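Shipment paperwork, digital attachment
Item: protein structure file
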Amino acid sequence: MSLWPLILGMAAVTYVPRLLPMVFVRGERLPRRLRLFLACIPCAALGVLIVPGGLYAVEGRMLLCGLSLAAAFITAWFSRNLLIPMAAAVLSLLGLSYVL
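Attachment content:
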């Protein structure tokens, strides 16, 4: 069995939802509330992907992981950088694992 139909089908399913809004909304201004709603989607999707993995990073140490995740969120809020919150999460997890 060839994998090409499967690959082409997955490519179409991924590409078509990205293409349709550009075709139908070309040149039109979206309402302000809709633009604000659409702007929140990447943050929400990222949170849904990261938070569960962050809470269960170390098996049996959910409090420790939650504290390091909180450190990452706090540094992300103030730094608006990607590397600083990652470093804060890893270093706080390492430091708290010795303390707690």
